[in-house]
Write a structure and sequence with these properties.
This protein has 145 residues and is α/β, with parallel strands linked by helices. Helices cover 29% and strands 30% of the residues. The protein has a single domain, classed as Glutaredoxin (3-Layer(aba) Sandwich). A hairpin with a 5-residue loop joins β8 and β9. It starts with 6 loop residues before the first strand and ends with a helix.
Length: 145
């Protein structure tokens, strides 16, 4: 399946398009909220393994509905060494099916699903990871590439 293209700003305001990464593996991971426990663990796991991803010809792109300013604080606080993209309008979240119904403390609401999409160098989604475990997720993906 062809991965939907997008154009989103990162934590520094730089625009990233999926088409910019043609010829590389792309790990496109969606996460609920900056600076929350699971999201910190997941982001730091990617940060700590970024060199392994680079060796495999892969780039990591995080996406949430938080603002560029929120992403900037999050990236600086945890020394994140990859782009985290601001999808404040939720267009990309919806295009990838990463916006949906969630349940927490007995309440149902719409929110960001913790999904990751592995996109091959030709721009096709080769694997979708749903409801990922933030502690082991980077290693899972490295095995897939």
């Amino acid at each position: 399946m062809k991965a939907p293209d997008f154009s989103l700003p990162d934590q520094k305001g730089k625009i990233h398009k999926l088409s910019d990464y043609k010829g590389k593996w792309v790990v496109l991971y969606f996460y609920p909220k900056d600076d929350t426990p699971g999201c910190i663990k997941e982001a730091c796991g990617f940060r700590d393994n970024v060199e392994e991803f680079k060796k495999k010809g892969a780039v990591i792109l995080g996406v949430s509905k938080d603002s560029v300013e929120s992403h900037k604080k999050f990236a600086e606080k945890y020394q994140l060494n990859f782009p985290i993209l601001a999808d404040t309008g939720k267009e990309v979240l919806k295009a990838y099916g990463a916006w949906g119904e969630k349940k927490f403390l007995g309440k149902t609401f719409m929110g960001t699903l913790r999904n990751t999409y592995l996109i091959n160098p030709k721009g096709n989604i080769t694997k979708k990871f749903e409801k990922v475990n933030p502690l082991i997720h980077p290693q899972e993906i490295l095995k897939e590439i």
